[in-house]
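Appendix B. Raw example, untouched.
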Amino acid sequence: MNWYFAVLIILASCMFMELVAWFTHKYIMHGSLWILHRDHHIRDGRKIEWNDLFALIFAVPSILLIYYGTRGGVDYRLYIGAGIFLYGMLYFLFHDVLVHKRLRLFGEARGNYLKATVRAHMDHHKPRLQHNYGFLVAPFKYYREEFSGKTGG
């Protein structure tokens, strides 16, 4: 497989994971598995949450795809698994490090995209505004407000 197809599969898999994460967050985390996700909405400074089990759940397909994608040569499963892994790393850096500061690696968000996306996620934690379920891509209104300088916060 050519390297550009590999990169394309990795990037497509990573972008697809935003849809998977949105669906899972809206219908599973805020649905049948709210019992695991609920403590994430209680911001009390804990470093470990029941919600962290979702990271393990999402890691399993990535690990399996990488493993089976390298047995007897390299195939597309490796690249799909790498895309899922890439999404997981971006999610961790954005959500746990930048937004919730569970690790103090970065300062405040800079740039309109990051500011808008962080604001959307923080709005999700407000009881009356939990309609936003994205992680790395927020509803367009947040970007429109941020880029126009009309942030509603």
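End of appendix B.
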